[in-house]
Structure formats: structure tokens, C-alpha cells
Amino acid sequence: xxxxxxxxxxxxxxxxxxxxxxxxxxxxxxxxxxxxxxxxxxxxxxxxxxxxxxxxxxxxxxxxxxxxxxxxxxxxxxxxxxxxxxxxxxxxxxxxxxxxxxxxxxxxxxxxxxxxxxxxxxxxxxxxxxxxxxxxxxxxxxxxxxxxxxxxxxxxxxxxxxxxxxxxxxxxxxxxxxxxxxxxxxxxxxxxxxxxxxxxxxxxxxxxxxxxxxxxxxxxxxxxxxxxxxxxxxxxxxxxxxxxxxxxxxxxxxxxxxxxxxxxxxxxxxxxxxxxxxxxxxxxxxxxxxxxxx
Length: 294
Fold this sequence. Notes:
mainly alpha; 13 helices; 2 strands
């Protein structure tokens, strides 16, 4: 049971980092990124490939963050020229492009075979201790990104980001250049998404293209909206609740034994969907959103 709880805690932590990356981009600045999984994949492959080649894991994760930031720059330049709905389409296409490259460039990613043998930190420790130490690393990185997010939120820089989100024309009118801020914030958020991917790669020890589908992006979107868009605490709470929904639904089989294992997969999705609908219906502003609004 302890191993299971540690595994779930690690997955929750990784989702928290991924949700924070989206919260930085959309919650603070209004940049719609439907291709978040692309940076998650780039981080996983970057760190995986480097550490398989013998690099230290810490260096691999650091390079993953750098790769995520650099890969975001072309999209950042596009973002300053497109309306929100067009940016959403472009980022969605970029995610599919990254997945297809991972699928077809076998010389680099090993294609459908996947990249295995990715080292996990603390491998010389017993499994329980290893998982606990890995969780400590995940928690440390969550704290780092929470502090970054908080700093962005309360600083004059963060107030400009909020102004860009709410009224970009007004920011132009006071002589500020929204384009520069959009590119910078897209890079920061993408770096966080890449770190989440790197952590997932080192935890699982294996990456393949079929892990990087749109479902990953929309898990983060659901978590952010459920917790409260634009709030750091909302990203953390939303990620926890979403994972609680998905993992808790595994135990429906215990209360509905007459449903077969095959049918239970559909029942689980329906139960999770219903919970999300009810949550957004009665708390559209999110769990930690403004309670004075409906």
C-alpha cells in the first residue's frame, strides 16, 4: 500500500508541475496552449537521451528545461501575431508534429519501440526509499515553480502580464510591448512543462510516442480550470483533485462487482466526466476561485 501511495503522490506532483506551466501561460497571460504535451515530450526525450548516454540526471533535467524554452521561441513569435483561437490551433498542430517526429525518427527516438533504460535517481536504494526520495525531488521542483509563479504574480512584471490577458490594447497604449512579455512567458511555462516530462521519463524509465497524446494536455487544462484559473493554489489543488477522480474511480469495481472489467473502463470515464461536469457547473470559477462570483 505504501508503494502505491508513493506512486500516486509522484504522479500527482508531476501533474502539478505540468498544470503550473499551463497556469503561467494561460492563467497569467491568456496564452492558449493546446500543445502543452509537445514540451512534455521534448523534456522526456531530451533528458532520457542524455542520461542514457551517461549524463547525470540533474544535468538531463536542466537541459530538458532549456530545450523546452528554446522550442517554445518559434511558437512565442507566432503567438504575438495570432488571436487566441488561432494560437490554440497552431499549438495543437505543433504537438502532433512533435509526436510524429518521435514516431518516425527511429535513429534518434527509436520510434514505436520506445526509449528504454532511462536511469532513475537513487537506484542503489531499496524501492520504498527510492520512491520516497524521488517524491522529495518532485516536491522540491514544485516548490521552485510555485515560488517562480508567485514572484511573477505579485511583481510589476506580473501585473503587466495580467493586463495583457485582460486588455492588450491598454498595454500598448501605455507604451509597453506585449510581444516581448508573451515570448518570455511562453518560454518559462514551456520549460516547466519540459521538466514535468523529464521527471515522468525518469520515473517510468521508458518513453514512447504513444505516451504523448492530447489527453496529457487536457488533463492539465482540466486541473487548472477545476482548481481556479490564474491561481497558483488552484493549479495544485486542481491537479490533486483530478488525480483523485481518476484513481478513485478504480475502486468502483468493489461497489459494482456485476460490471465486467471491460465495461468498467467506460463506467470509470463516465463517472469522472460526471464529477467534472458537476464541479464546473457548481464552481465555474474553480475550487479556489472568487466565491463572490458565480
